[in-house]
Amino acid sequence: MVKGYRVAVIGGGWSGLAAAVEAVSAGHQVALFEMARELGGRARRAASGDAGLSLDNGQHILIGAYTECLRLMRLVGAEPERLLDRRPLTLQFPEGRGLALPPGPAVPAFLRGVMAATHWPLRSRWALLAQAGRWALAGFRCDDSLTVAQLTAALPGDVRQDLIDPLCVAALNTPADRASAKVLLRVLRDALFAGPGASDLLLPRDDLSALWPQPAARWLTARGARLVLGHRVQALARKDASWQVDDEPFDAVVLAASAGEAARLVQALAPAWASRAAAFEYEPIVTVVARSAGSRLPQPMLALRSDGDTAPAQFVFDLGQLRGQDQAGGVMAFVVSAASGWAERGTAALTQAVLAQAQAQLAGQLKGELVVVRTLNEKRATFACIPGLWRPPRHLATGLCAAGDYVEGPYPATLEGAMRAGAQAARQAASSLPAP
User: Fold this and answer.
1) Which CATH number does the domain housing residue 360 bear?
2) If 381 and its partner were Cys, which of 43, 66, 285, 320 is the partner (CB 3.0–4.6 Å)?
3) Pairing of β 282-291 and β 371-383
4) Is the separation of the CB atoms in 164 and 142 below 8 Å?
5) pLDDT digits (tens, 9 = 90+) for 316-374
6) What confidence category does residue 1 fall into, taking pLDDT thresholds of 50, 70 and 90?
7) DSSP structure class, residue 158
């Protein structure tokens, strides 16, 4: 890549920071503009709870297949081995049902894990292995119009309830009856069958800002990048041979703002692109943080039985166990993904339903009453990952590329998708220019 361009990055979430780090690594002069006062976008520290435990605006996990996340974290001095609790994939419910993979090469680990799930009848285990084999033979591809529910309709109900449904809502933040089967198959391919350690869970031991935004900001500042916080870019235009960002000239621009903000900025430049970017349907994620003094879960993350009537949460994280900051233990984050229906009932009703669900499903683990610390609602957590979804392309014009978890790509709205898009946009925006 030719060095020495002036590069503007608009947006300081995980994707924008990845673009800025990639551009600085290539020798460019970078200015990053972020409308919020804090970096990190939809994956950052949001508040402090009691006992000094920092809370995020949503619970995120990484997996071993997130190679770009891990590469960029190491590049800026964030140490994944210290910041992430790594363990083989375990997706189990409080009563022990679910899948737990042993360490080792991907395919044998999956076979051993499925066969060890003796709470499923043998016919269910064989059906899952046979279906996984058929997906593998098809290259983990399917018709773009299929939902996850349609793709897996032939699987036994216990496998769908214990494995497919929680995996789907965790990865795509979209219920199985609406979620894209094509995207889920790509996630399964990379997570379960990509190689040793690809399916490992990487659970944050610290808040999300400490994981990437803060180390990236320190690294960028130390190398001369300019970080402008609390500034909403008002205009993006082409003038002569440069791009004007609020009348400041740049050779290249990476548009890493939210889809709505990006659409606003390029409405006159690329109306068709802007129209598509503005048309996404979104799903919220609500996190209810509560304390039960002295309680400790058998694992840092458990799946929960959820439904649309009385049980909203699909997962619970033991933050005291993961963070090691809460000496008394018992601080837990209950996650309600694809939460649009529940959010309509109001925060108070949702919170009370989560508490009742927790008392019923975690009766054996809770030592005392659950007391709410805070309820956090990320209203536009991810786009709804539905079949046939058209996602806008990365390239808009010479020297102008979009980045974000919503741009065209194989992944759903994940941290890995965001960081890959950012790094790729930075490379593509600069490589499309003539030598400076």
Assistant:
1) 3.90.660.10
2) 285
3) antiparallel
4) no
5) 999 989 987 555 478 999 999 999 999 999 999 999 999 999 999 999 899 889 999 99
6) very low
7) H
- What's the gap between Cα 355 and its chain centre? 25
Q: Do residues 311 and 333 touch, judged by C-beta distance below 8 A?
A: no
User: Which neighbouring-strand residues pair with 334?
Assistant: 288, 316
Looking at this protein, which amino acid is placed at residue 404? G
Q: Contact 304/93 with Cβ under 8 angstroms? A: yes
Check residue 48 and give its pLDDT: 66
Q: Write down the pLDDT at residue 289.
A: 94
Q: Report the domain count for the chain.
A: 3
At residue 3, the pLDDT reads 62
Q: Is the pTM of this model over 0.90?
A: yes
String of DSSP letters for 189-227: HHHHSSSTTTT-EEEESS-HHHHTHHHHHHHHHHTT-EE
Give the residue numbers spanning the domain of 251: 6-43+212-280+388-431
Q: What is the DSSP string of 53-93?
A: -EEESS---EETT-HHHHHHHHHTT--HHHHEEEE--EEE-
Query: 43 pLDDT band (50/70/90 cuts)?
Result: very high
Strands of the 62-63 sheet, one edge to the other: 62-63, 201-204, 84-87
Q: One-letter amino acid identity for 254?
A: V
Strands 282-291 and 201-204: unpaired
Q: Indicate whether 298 and 250 sit together in one domain.
A: no
d(CA 336, CA 286): 5
